[in-house]
Amino acid sequence: MTEAPQDITAKMPILIIEDDAGFADLMASTLEDEGLTSHCAYCGKEALEWLAFSASSLIIIDYTLPDMTGASIIEQMQEMGHTAPFIMVTGRDDSSLAVRMMKTGACDFMLKDTTFLDRLPAVVTRALHEAGTHERLRRAELSLRQSEARLARAQKIARMGSWEWDIASGDIYWSEELYRIFGLTPGNPDKIHLDWVFNLVNPVDRPAFKKALLGSARSCQPFNIIYRINSATEGEIVVNSQGEVERGENGRPRFISGTTLDITARIRAESEIQQLINYDTLTGLPNRNLLHDRLRLAIAQAAREQHLMAVLILDLDRFKRINDTLGHRAGDKLLQAVSQRLLACVRDSDTLARLGGDEFVILLSNVAQEEGISSVAQKILAVLAEPVYVDGHEIYTTASIGIAVYPMDGEDGHVLLKHADLAMYQAKEQDRNNVQFFSREMNIKVLERMILENSMRKAIEREEFFLMYQPQVDARSGRIVGMEALLRWDHPDLGVLLPDKFIYLAEETGMIIPLGEWVIREACRQNKEWQGQGFPPLRVAVNLSGKQFSQQRLDEAVAAILMETGLEPEWLELELTESALMKNVEENIRLLCKLKEMGVSLSIDDFGTGYSSLSYLKHFPISRLKIDRSFVRDITTNPDDAAIAEIIIAMAQTLKLNVTAEGVETRAQMEFLSFHNCVEMQGYLFSRPLRAGAFAELLKNGLKY
Ligand code: C2E
Ligand code: MG
Ligand code: MG
């Protein structure tokens, strides 16, 4: 804490400069009686020497000294930096001298008369009091000046100016920094008019600026506005002005004062950040982020104007190969070239964005019909078909395009993008360089697939799969000679699913391997259990998918299962389709031989639907053909089917293969087949596929047909 100025000065001694030593001491003792300390100097030199190292609160000077005049002491004293007030004392009653003394800054003037000592304490006290007040003022002024300077410095650093507008008089004050922000010399012009200020504002932003300022003056509400001005030195800059209204005594707005901040650098940094956030650095196209914004806008517009809006997802075909063979630099250049070409295909109102990698999205707004969308897509494929030259390489690219249309294919941006993406994959699957529209049908298929794919992974553990058994019958005796195990999935939401609903998916996802093994194991286990229960031993046929068949070590897996379940190999038959068999002939033959050596028998399922010639079958170690049910169905009405069935049966006999007819539903079919020496049959006529329990009943009670 600083002490009050009075206290400081009061503690400092009063300097008495008086050549009459006796009179000086008298003055000193008079002051001492008042509690004031003093120091006496008996000539000018002595006084100045003392002042060189000391400070005094007040100086009392006899005007006529032996070595110099009071005036010259004052002058030198002030040169030394002393600001103490002084009282001039003189023996002469000279009013003109008094005036001169007061001009030099004396705070009082005393005549050395008889009442001098009596008056002295009062004069000194008043002078000290005044000096205190003066000092306080001086310090206050100093601190004001300092804080003004500090504010100006702060404004300069912040590029912030302050201003004040006297609404009544129209006077406008600008801080120095405000002039500088506008590229002007501080104080020039000296008089500022409102219109002149308005003219500095960028014409585009001027109406808004006027409205903000004048509106604030009218409503007494603060304002805050960002606008552009033309700085005389820096061209267009962006500033932010904030102002507040001060009311006069009558309650009406009197002043508006505020600040103006140069935010050009901030805006620039922000727009650079915006650029980074919203645009792809490689192509300069909007990125995923901005795309979502644009998509929202495009949907809103399409909804308002009742137009269609299309989302096209474009993916370059085999881009990875270009990247891998020619390098990433070439890949980048290709992407840049492609983005240029795509830009040429769309209107300004459309959006072309890059999602990353070789994936682009085009939003076609305001389209009247789907044909229009399709023709844009075709145009894109055509321009992309032209070769691109990169680093001396001629690159041919093609693209696959998937399209989803608002509102039919989705009403929300994410859904549209997802559907366009699915359509794009469809396009790629069908044939690259292709355009594919999303369709509901496709969506349902895809959804189903997603649901199934997710739930299938857990289905084995949750024991949702089970087998049904369909008897294979010797039609002459009516006895059950075997059974086919047929897979079912008891889906928690969808109910019991037949294999055609999920086998393809299991094959695509690779799930077929564990699932197929489970089927073999379960069929063997069940078969062995029935044997254990005393039923006559029966052959169980298990269907194998092509994928499973080309699996390495299928033979080992089968051997392990037989070991594990204890079923003799002769009671297991594996069913394969022709197409599975014909894929890797050499390998298959080897694998089948191993299985056959183990004692497992093999049959060809759905025979007649594939391309294999009967004679070719000699090469495979198979023991049975199953005539596909499509021939059996019309065997009694369609002579072609009848002929095929007859030939298959006859050929099988020459090749010493067993034959089973599938899908026998009627007595007529059974009789026709029996007549042509097909003994074994399977079909609804005898029994539908049954759960294990029901099948055991059937074994117990025999067939009734
Ligand atoms: P598939 O091997 O030809 O099996 C015979 C299919 O015909 C079975 O259909 C059976 O229910 C049906 N069927 C039997 N008798 C008749 C009949 O008189 N009339 C008609 N219309 N149909 C009859 P399911 O069970 O739906 O099986 C369909 C296909 O799924 C099977 O054809 C087989 O290729 C495959 N599959 C079944 N289980 C498995 C399995 O565990 N693994 C593999 N990879 N595929 C399996
Ligand atoms: Mg089968
Ligand atoms: Mg079949």
List keywords for this structure.
single chain, 705 residues, alpha/beta, Rossmann fold, Alpha-Beta Plaits, eight-stranded mixed β-barrel, five-stranded parallel sheet, disordered N terminus, binds ligand C2E
Compact summary:
The chain is an alpha/beta fold and 705 residues long.
Please give a structural write-up:
By secondary structure, the chain is α/β, with parallel strands linked by helices. The protein folds into four domains: 7-146, Rossmann fold; 155-268, PAS domain (Beta-Lactamase); 282-439, Reverse transcriptase/Diguanylate cyclase domain (Alpha-Beta Plaits), CATH 3.30.70.270; 458-701, EAL domain (TIM Barrel, Alpha-Beta Barrel), CATH 3.20.20.450. It is built from 26 helices and 27 strands. The strands form five sheets. An eight-stranded mixed beta barrel has the order 18-19-21-22-23-24-25-26, surrounded by four helices. β8 and β9 form a beta hairpin. α20 (554-565) packs parallel to α22. The longest helix has 43 residues, at 116-158. The radius of gyration is 54 Å and the shape is elongated. The relative contact order is 0.04. Residues 1-8 have low confidence and may be disordered. Bound molecules: ligand C2E and magnesium ion (MG) (2 copies). Ligand C2E binds at residues 470, 486-487, 498-500, 503, 516, 519, 543-545, 575, 605-606, 629, 662-665, 682-684, 689.
